[in-house]
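[09:14] KT: can someone run the structure on this one? pasting the chain below
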Amino acid sequence: MTGRSEARVALVTGGGKGVGAGVVKVLAEHGVRCCINCNSNPDMAEATLEAVRAAGGEAFVYRADITDLSQLQGMVDAIVEKWGRLDILVNNAAMQPNRFIDQYDYALLRRVWEINIGGYFHAARACLPHLRKSECGRVVNISSIHGKRPTGFDAGYAMTKGAIRMFTRELALELYADGITVNAVDLGGCRIEFKTGRAPIQSHNPLDCNNPEMKGFRQVTPRDVGELVWYLCKPEASAITGDGIRVDKGLILI
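[09:31] RB: done, structure tokens below
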């Protein structure tokens, strides 16, 4: 453990694997107690929990579909019942099918929006009464450079990431008087196990849709993301709100 953080409490949606697991591990190293939300990959969430505990951190796993309001509220209630507070919300759970527009149907597009923006919206609403009680309330929305930079594939996913950026700004403005900061992390290519919701193989690899230089781009790691999230959650970051900070190893420049 590298230090304590007044035993603050965080909810990390999609915290069982990939980026979310990296965020959970870094927060836990700094003494933040974490609820590891998962839905489709509970075994991976349990493995993340074991890693946190082995490092001396405190966490628990809660399986909930963030598009189901009753499940989401039940998770928030369980956190407050267990630890009596909730200080940090990291909206991370997402679905990225990696499909061209003619490979989408309406049902898939709606599901992507329900998870990627609806889940963020409803999680913020459920957590807000508790965040307002915190002396250091924080919301961090994991977004993507897809919300700003056209890539030639997966317009449905890209639209949700653009929406997250505006949601971040609006929420930051609404919560300014409460002293709660709201920021987005604009993520580039990240080295994770797999993307939730991605079909086995689409007609093209997404990197083939961009210029050839992208084949050699450097990926960030979940820990890179976790370190940035941790900084945004620190009291020293109170002057940063409504912002979007890239962590992409320069991918957007290519």
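[09:33] KT: thanks! Confidence is low (pLDDT under 50) at residues 197-204.
[09:34] RB: yep, looked fine to me
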